[in-house]
Amino acid sequence: MLLIGAHEVRSVLDTHVLRRALADGYAALSEGRTDVPARIMARTPGGMLGAMPGYVEGIGLAAKLVSVFPGNGQRDLPTHMAVVALFDESTGTPLALMDGEVITEMRTSASAALACDLLAPAAATVLTIVGAGVQAAGHLTAFRSVRAWTTIRVANRTPERARRLAERFEGVTPVDDIDEAVSGADVVACATDAPSAVFDPAAFTGSHVSSVGIHHELPDSLLRGALVAVQTRSSVTTPPPNGPAAVQGMDPEDVVELGEVIGGRHPGRSNRQQVTVWVSVGHAMEDVVAARLVHDRAVAAGLGVTIDV
Fold first, then answer.
1. Phi and psi of 47, rounded to 5°?
2. What is the structure's pLDDT at 37?
């Protein structure tokens, strides 16, 4: 079995290649070529440990163990930490154990970028990222590859954090006020842990918005009349943290699976003025796809440490 560390995962996991691979994964998900049970969780006073197994036909079999400890922010530790184990889908042989924190960051932001590429208007030029943590940084990297943005803004409830994040990326402008940052943006990508809406819906005049937060960080009014895209229709009947808070109680027929757009069974955006929304809390299919890419590319590059099991 191959042990693959965080630095090696990041060195082989290219966001362009990952986005294309995720498109295949989402198509498989909507076509019933996966087996992904709901994640289970063991809770402690300070957080929880979740288990996310998944099988994607022709791609692989994997399981992620992810810990979520919100108080870690006060300890200068990541709030989410994880490992991913990849197995041979034919024999069940363990193939690799790899860092899951980088995988979670990159597959989440790459999925949001994929949804943006499929649903946002081709002429979109102004992007706003709301948030300043790991996912916001991942979104800044992933979204750059799907449109020729002329303006990229970043905003956060703590403006200083947005300024520090912007300093890490060329051509990114920090904006102290979130409503101001959202105003005039064609695409708004939210990546926060906010328990309620992070901006005034009146400030949003764009065409595409996304949310990868575990809570309800989008204004309710944005979802009314919008084309709402999800990973699976079960998202609307699966309570948080397994399902997105924003779509709870919606009619399953009022949402579209991203894989249906990829497979051509749904047309996606119908006109330039339509608002499209991507809502996600992560899915084990994404981990399987990313883990297979990491393993195959690490083997080809001679990376990782082999151990006997």
1. 175, -150
2. 94
The Cα 20–Cα 285 span in angstroms is 14
Q: Could you report how far apart the first and last alpha carbons of the chain are, in Å?
A: 7
Which of the four CATH numbers 3.30.1780.10, 1.10.1370.40, 3.40.120.10, 3.10.20.320 does domain 2-104+284-306 have?
3.30.1780.10
Token readout for 253 is: 């027929």
Same fold, 2-104+284-306 and 105-279: no
Q: How far apart are CA 103 and CA 189, in angstroms?
A: 19
Q: Tell me the per-residue pLDDT of 90-144, one tens digit each, with 9 for 90 and over.
A: 999 999 999 999 999 999 999 999 999 999 999 999 999 999 999 999 999 999 9
What pLDDT, in 10s, does the model give residues 219-274?
999 999 899 999 999 999 999 888 999 999 999 999 999 999 999 999 999 998 89
Domain positions in the chain are 2-104+284-306, 105-279
d(CA 206, CA 184): 7
Strand positions, DSSP E, 233-275: 255-257
* DSSP SS3 for 166: helix
The model carries a pTM of 0.95
What tokens does 194 get? Answer: 């906010």
Q: What CATH class does 105-279 carry?
A: alpha beta
